[in-house]
Amino acid sequence: MIDGIEDLDSYLIDYGFVNKISIEMLKEFCFLPIMEFEIFILIAVVDKSEFAKNKDKLFSKPLKYINITQKMLDFELHNLTYKYSLFNIASKSVGLEDSNFYESHIKEFLKMLFLCAISFRSSDIHFETLKNAIIIRFRIDGKLSQFFRFDIGLYPILSSSLKMFSSLDISQKRVPQNGRFSQNLDGVDFDFRVSILPTICGESIVVRILDNKKAFLGLENIGFSKDVYGAILKNINFSHGMILVTGATGSGKTTTMYSILNELDRKNKKIITIEDPIEYNIDGVMQVQINEEIGLSYEIVLKNILRQDPDVIMIGEIRDENALKIAIQASLTGHLVIATLHTNDAIKTINRLLDLDAKAYLIASVLRLIVSQKLIRVLCPYCKEEIDESGIKTYRSVGCPKCNFSGYDGRTIVTEYLQVDDEVAKMINQVDIENILAYLKYKTINENIYTKVLDGTTSMSEYYSHEI
Known about the structure:
This protein is α/β, with parallel strands linked by helices and 468 residues long. It contains 19 helices and 18 strands. The protein folds into three domains: 1-78, 2-Layer Sandwich (GMP Synthetase, Chain A, domain 3), CATH 3.30.300.160; 82-210, Beta-Lactamase (2-Layer Sandwich); 214-466, Rossmann fold (3-Layer(aba) Sandwich). Strand 13 (312-315), helix 13 and strand 14 (336-341) form a beta-alpha-beta unit. The model has no long low-confidence stretch (mean pLDDT 90).
C-alpha cells in the first residue's frame, strides 16, 4: 500500500456481484464492488468523499472502503467482460462431483483464458497457488501482471486438466514435470509448453504460448538495423567458425536463431540443432531434444553429432566448459556453429568464454560474430505523453484502452554486434579486451536504447530498466 492506495490484486473479487451493477454506473461513480458480506459490502473507490455523496442510491448495507487509483479501476472495467465470464465458469466448476460435468466447464475456462492471453500478446500464463487463492498472471511485453484471482478450490481442477492436456502424471504433485500440447482455437493452431514446479502451497504452473509464426519469421523482419542484418547474412555463409547470439532470458535469442535457420540453405546443407526444449519444428533441419533424465545431455549429443557429418550445428545454449570445448572443436574442424550464450553485451561475451576456460587463441581462431540483443517495450502511440526533462524532449507511458492501460504496445529489438576481423582477433588472442570497444567505436546497446528514447519509441523508465 502506497499513500493509502491498496492493490486490487490482493483481493478476491466476486464478479457475480459486480455484474449486478451496470458498467455505466461503475464508471460514473468510479468504484468497484469487491464482495458482499452478511453485514457489510467491501468496495474499492477512487475518491471516497465523492462516492459517499451517492452511496445511498446504490447500496442499503454499510460499506467498507479501500482506495485505488483511476488507472487500476480503468483496467478492471476494461476487462470486466472477460473476468466475469471466467468467474462464472470457474464458479460452476468448483465443488461439482460429476467429473464429466466440471471437465467440460474447465475446458471452456481454459479456452477462454488462452484466447484472452493471446489477444493481449501474452508470451506466458502463470498459475500460482497461495494459501487460500490461485492467481493467474500474464507476461505481456516481458512484464508480469495479474489478471485473475479465484478461490483455491479451482487449483486442483486446473492442475489436473493441464496435466491431462500435456500427457503428464495427474497424481504426481511432488516433482517437477514438463510437457506440451496443441489446440485449435477459433480456427488457428497453437502450441503450448507446460512447466510444473511443486511449491509450499501447491504447484506453480507456467504455460508458454508458442507463436508458430515466429519460427518462420524472416531475418529481415525481426527489426535488425541494416548493419547487423548485413553482418549476420555475411557470416552465416561461411563454412566454418562460430556465431554467438547473446542476451538475457526473454531477449528474443530463440526467435533470432530460428530466423537464421530459415536463411540457411537447408536443401544442400546438413543442419542439426541441439535444443532444450525444441520450441518449433522446421522442415529440413535435424532437431535433437535434450533429455537429461535418460542421459541425453548437451555434452553427449555434441560428442556424437560430428559423426552425422553436419555442415551447420545450432546449439540452443552453451552452458558449461565441456559444451564450449566441443563447440570450439567443431568450429575448428570445418563446421559452422551457431549458439546462444547468456551475457549482457558483446565484450562480456568474450570474458564469459574465457571464464569457461576457453583458450584465448582458440576463441580468436573460431569466433566470427557476436550479436548481443535486448527487447524494449514500445510506447503506445495513442496515449504516450511528451515531457521535457532538463531541456530534452522525451515521452512517457500513460495508459489507455488501446494498450490495456499498460502504456506500451509491443516490443522492438535493440542490438550491438562485434565483427571479429583480424585486428579484433589479435586483441582477443592477447586478452586485450578493453581496447576492442575503443578500436571499433560502435554504439553500445545502452546507447542504442537511448536513441530510441530520443525518437519517441520508448521511455526513460524503460531505458533505466535495461541499463547495465
